[in-house]
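quick q for whoever's on today - can somebody do inverse folding on this one?? i tried earlier but teh output was garbage lol. tokens:
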């Protein structure tokens, strides 16, 4: 078993601050550019919205004389309406994407600014500050990784939910158009709209659970892990049995969050990167520590490469740092083609839990 409790000692705060300052300046330039693009896109959306209102009004006027008008005029009118609505839909999506990117850049700039303010832009460290100089970058990397996760969720919300809602509006407009002239087509569009709404509602629930499962606050980490394992199994078709030993009880909120997030990330790694067909979870709630093990039969990996950043996608270095910040330990056992076993433990004091079971 590989113990990863050691810290890197060759970190240069000078180079980190210099790089962070350069990144901050680049972020400011990106913000100026995206502000220009947003103004241009907003103006185009406004123009297309006005054009859409005009074409829609004209089409409704045609409907009053639907039986007497030449078919070619009707066809041209509806083609024009469809064209402007598609362009409006596309531009609204582009504007939403730019606004989302702007918010993400603003958050990034704020984080970079705070980092520079906290460090004072100085590379000088006191003689006794070596450990402090090592821990600061670790905390920063955890913060940046958590922000990257949230940005990923924002992208998912935009690409899936926001696009679906925009599509709902378009489908609703199509239904309105065909209610009187083609009831069968209107019924088909309504059924499609209902199906899309159901799928989007399911996605929204998943996003909410990933962001912050309410069960974690209400019932604690063990019931939340059980529910998450069930949901994970249903979605991916991979059995995920969970075994719990010790006295099930509530812990400090930050410990429960860390245990849940660690297990959540390890399950995602096993599924997305290791292509595992079997995963199992073990949690032991001892009197002075909580220990969790996630084991899979996936493709495995080189532990040293993963922790040194050779495989950044699985984030084990950040998971390790998050655990160590609470005084815990992370142990990884894996080889190529032989699956992976990750064990982490977090100490708990006598007054952190509540006696008794759930």
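ok took a stab at it. sequence:
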């Amino acid at each position: 078993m590989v113990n990863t409790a050691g810290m890197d000692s060759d970190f240069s705060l000078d180079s980190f601050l210099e790089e962070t300052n350069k990144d901050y300046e680049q972020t400011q330039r990106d913000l100026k550019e995206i502000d220009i693009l947003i103004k241009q896109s907003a103006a185009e959306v406004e123009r297309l919205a006005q054009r859409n209102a005009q074409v829609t009004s004209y089409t409704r006027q045609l409907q009053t004389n639907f039986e007497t008008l030449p078919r070619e005029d009707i066809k041209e009118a509806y083609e024009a309406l469809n064209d402007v609505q598609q362009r409006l839909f596309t531009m609204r999506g582009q504007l939403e994407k730019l606004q989302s990117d702007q918010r993400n850049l603003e958050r990034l700039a704020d984080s970079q600014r705070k980092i520079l303010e906290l460090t004072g832009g100085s590379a000088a460290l006191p003689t006794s500050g070596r450990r402090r100089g090592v821990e600061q970058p670790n905390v920063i990397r955890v913060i940046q990784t958590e922000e990257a996760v949230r940005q990923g969720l924002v992208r998912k919300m935009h690409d899936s939910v926001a696009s679906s809602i925009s599509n709902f509006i378009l489908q609703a407009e199509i239904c309105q158009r065909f209610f009187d002239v083609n009831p069968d087509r209107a019924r088909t569009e309504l059924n499609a709209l209902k199906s899309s709404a159901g799928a989007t509602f399911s996605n929204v629930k998943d996003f909410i659970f990933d962001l912050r499962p309410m069960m974690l606050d209400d019932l604690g980490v063990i019931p939340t892990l059980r529910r998450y394992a069930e949901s994970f199994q249903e979605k991916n078709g991979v059995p995920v049995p969970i075994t719990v030993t010790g006295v099930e009880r509530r812990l400090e909120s930050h410990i429960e969050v860390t245990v849940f997030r660690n297990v959540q990330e390890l399950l995602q790694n096993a599924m997305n990167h290791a292509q595992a067909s079997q995963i199992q979870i073990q949690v032991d709630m001892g009197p002075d520590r909580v220990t969790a093990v996630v084991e899979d039969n996936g493709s495995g990996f080189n532990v040293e490469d993963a922790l040194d950043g050779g495989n950044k996608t699985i984030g084990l270095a950040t998971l390790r740092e998050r655990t160590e910040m609470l005084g815990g330990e992370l142990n990884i056992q894996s080889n190529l083609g032989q699956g992976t076993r990750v064990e982490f433990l977090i100490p708990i004091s006598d007054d952190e839990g509540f006696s008794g079971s759930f």
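fwiw The chain is about 65% helix and 10% strand. also The two ends are 33 Å apart (CA to CA). so keep that in mind when u check it
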